[in-house]
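call fold(seq) -> C-alpha coordinates
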Amino acid sequence: MRFIMAAALALGLAAPASADMFTDAAEARPILGMTRANWIAVREFDGQDLLYFTHLASYRCALSDIRYGVNSDQPILSFVPEPCYRDEATPYAIKPDSGAQVYVAFPLNHIRFVTVRITYADGVQETAKFDRSGALID
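ret:
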Protein backbone atom coordinates (compact mmCIF):
# COMPACT_ATOMS: atom_id res chain seq x y z
CA MET A 1 0.00 0.00 0.00
CA ARG A 2 2.85 2.40 0.81
CA PHE A 3 4.32 1.73 -2.63
CA ILE A 4 1.02 2.58 -4.32
CA MET A 5 0.66 5.83 -2.37
CA ALA A 6 4.29 6.78 -3.04
CA ALA A 7 3.81 6.12 -6.75
CA ALA A 8 0.59 8.15 -6.81
CA LEU A 9 2.33 11.04 -5.08
CA ALA A 10 5.29 10.86 -7.47
CA LEU A 11 3.00 10.93 -10.48
CA GLY A 12 0.96 13.81 -9.08
CA LEU A 13 -2.17 11.65 -8.80
CA ALA A 14 -2.54 12.27 -5.07
CA ALA A 15 -1.49 15.00 -2.72
CA PRO A 16 -0.41 14.68 0.87
CA ALA A 17 -2.91 16.03 3.38
CA SER A 18 -2.20 19.53 4.57
CA ALA A 19 -3.55 21.56 7.45
CA ASP A 20 -5.50 23.88 5.18
CA MET A 21 -7.49 21.08 3.55
CA PHE A 22 -11.26 21.16 4.06
CA THR A 23 -11.29 24.85 4.98
CA ASP A 24 -13.58 25.82 2.12
CA ALA A 25 -17.12 24.75 1.37
CA ALA A 26 -16.34 22.72 -1.75
CA GLU A 27 -13.91 20.51 0.17
CA ALA A 28 -15.95 20.15 3.36
CA ARG A 29 -19.44 19.68 1.84
CA PRO A 30 -18.95 16.05 0.73
CA ILE A 31 -17.52 15.06 4.11
CA LEU A 32 -20.23 16.79 6.11
CA GLY A 33 -22.80 15.22 3.81
CA MET A 34 -21.42 11.73 4.45
CA THR A 35 -21.10 12.32 8.20
CA ARG A 36 -24.45 14.05 8.73
CA ALA A 37 -25.37 11.59 11.51
CA ASN A 38 -22.44 12.99 13.53
CA TRP A 39 -23.23 16.71 13.26
CA ILE A 40 -24.43 16.80 16.87
CA ALA A 41 -24.47 14.59 19.93
CA VAL A 42 -26.44 14.63 23.18
CA ARG A 43 -24.89 13.56 26.47
CA GLU A 44 -26.40 13.32 29.91
CA PHE A 45 -23.79 14.67 32.30
CA ASP A 46 -23.83 16.15 35.78
CA GLY A 47 -27.62 16.48 35.84
CA GLN A 48 -27.82 18.19 32.45
CA ASP A 49 -28.32 17.48 28.77
CA LEU A 50 -25.24 18.64 26.87
CA LEU A 51 -25.77 19.31 23.17
CA TYR A 52 -22.39 18.88 21.45
CA PHE A 53 -21.41 20.53 18.17
CA THR A 54 -17.88 19.07 18.13
CA HIS A 55 -18.13 17.60 14.62
CA LEU A 56 -19.38 20.83 13.06
CA ALA A 57 -16.82 22.85 15.01
CA SER A 58 -14.18 20.66 13.39
CA TYR A 59 -15.23 22.00 9.98
CA ARG A 60 -16.02 25.57 11.07
CA CYS A 61 -13.65 27.18 8.57
CA ALA A 62 -15.94 26.02 5.76
CA LEU A 63 -19.12 27.23 7.51
CA SER A 64 -20.53 30.74 7.89
CA ASP A 65 -23.41 29.84 10.22
CA ILE A 66 -24.60 27.04 12.50
CA ARG A 67 -28.19 27.29 13.73
CA TYR A 68 -30.22 24.87 15.79
CA GLY A 69 -33.60 24.38 17.36
CA VAL A 70 -34.18 22.20 20.40
CA ASN A 71 -37.57 20.47 20.30
CA SER A 72 -38.35 22.70 17.34
CA ASP A 73 -38.31 22.36 13.57
CA GLN A 74 -37.08 25.96 13.38
CA PRO A 75 -33.29 26.30 13.80
CA ILE A 76 -33.33 29.85 15.20
CA LEU A 77 -30.62 29.62 17.87
CA SER A 78 -27.02 30.28 16.88
CA PHE A 79 -24.07 28.14 17.83
CA VAL A 80 -20.91 30.23 17.57
CA PRO A 81 -17.80 28.06 17.40
CA GLU A 82 -14.24 29.05 18.06
CA PRO A 83 -12.77 31.14 15.23
CA CYS A 84 -11.01 29.56 12.28
CA TYR A 85 -7.27 30.11 12.49
CA ARG A 86 -6.61 30.37 8.74
CA ASP A 87 -3.22 32.01 9.16
CA GLU A 88 -1.91 29.23 11.39
CA ALA A 89 -0.64 25.73 10.66
CA THR A 90 -3.71 24.17 12.29
CA PRO A 91 -6.76 26.27 11.32
CA TYR A 92 -9.21 23.95 13.09
CA ALA A 93 -7.36 23.86 16.41
CA ILE A 94 -9.42 24.00 19.57
CA LYS A 95 -7.45 26.28 21.86
CA PRO A 96 -7.93 25.85 25.60
CA ASP A 97 -7.57 29.58 26.28
CA SER A 98 -10.18 30.67 23.70
CA GLY A 99 -13.10 30.33 26.09
CA ALA A 100 -15.18 28.73 23.33
CA GLN A 101 -17.32 25.71 24.16
CA VAL A 102 -18.29 22.88 21.83
CA TYR A 103 -21.55 22.27 23.68
CA VAL A 104 -24.66 23.99 25.03
CA ALA A 105 -26.24 22.89 28.33
CA PHE A 106 -29.94 22.22 28.94
CA PRO A 107 -31.91 20.74 31.86
CA LEU A 108 -31.70 16.94 32.09
CA ASN A 109 -34.04 15.16 29.65
CA HIS A 110 -35.05 18.46 28.05
CA ILE A 111 -33.81 17.58 24.56
CA ARG A 112 -36.26 15.39 22.60
CA PHE A 113 -35.02 16.32 19.12
CA VAL A 114 -32.74 18.87 17.50
CA THR A 115 -32.98 20.54 14.11
CA VAL A 116 -29.68 21.83 12.71
CA ARG A 117 -29.10 24.09 9.71
CA ILE A 118 -25.59 24.79 8.54
CA THR A 119 -24.66 27.44 6.03
CA TYR A 120 -21.48 26.89 4.09
CA ALA A 121 -19.17 29.81 3.37
CA ASP A 122 -20.50 29.82 -0.21
CA GLY A 123 -24.10 30.30 1.01
CA VAL A 124 -25.39 26.75 0.43
CA GLN A 125 -27.51 25.46 3.32
CA GLU A 126 -28.22 21.97 4.63
CA THR A 127 -30.68 21.00 7.35
CA ALA A 128 -30.95 17.81 9.40
CA LYS A 129 -33.15 16.63 12.25
CA PHE A 130 -31.90 14.39 15.05
CA ASP A 131 -33.95 12.43 17.58
CA ARG A 132 -32.51 12.21 21.08
CA SER A 133 -32.23 8.42 20.94
CA GLY A 134 -30.08 8.54 17.80
CA ALA A 135 -27.84 11.34 19.07
CA LEU A 136 -27.36 10.14 22.67
CA ILE A 137 -23.80 9.20 23.61
CA ASP A 138 -22.26 7.88 26.85
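The first strand starts at residue 41 and ends at 45.
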